[in-house]
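Comment on both lines for my students:
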Amino acid sequence: MKPQKDANFISQINRAAYGRYELYPGSVRWKWLIFTALDQLMGAGASSRSPQISINDPKICRSFLVGTCPHDLFTNTKQDLGPCPKMHSEPLKAEYESATEKTKYGFEYDYMRDLQKYIDECNRRIDAAQRRLEKTPDEIRQTNSLVCFPSPKQM
């Protein structure tokens, strides 16, 4: 059975589920079904080898190459930035670390700039939270009036 480009994959799964095909793991039909499912999910060009990506590609996360990506910090907290939109590649990180002229890329500057942005954002959130917690002078007087402090004359 040859794969057909315009074959309805759902109907093939239904036929396989109802026993019209001999379908068992390792069979040719099983492998063909898995291949067509992956092909439909990932796109037609996914099975071919992707071209090599260089360190200078804009799709690569420079912060990850230099150190730690800010998106990987504080995951599952209020400070979570979510997933990084750029690609993290361990082989490229190893290639960057082994490079002798790291300064020509300028990635360290970008890394420090990104971290400074993240620190500024954290400080801004802390300041906003502290402003919400600050008491007004009226609230301070009300608190002091509720708490009985002994006067110096009574001591």
Remarks:
- Helices lie at 9-17, 28-42, 62-66, 90-98, 107-133, 137-146.
- The mean pLDDT is 75.
- The CA atoms of residues 56 and 104 lie 11 Å apart.
- Residues 62-133 form one domain.
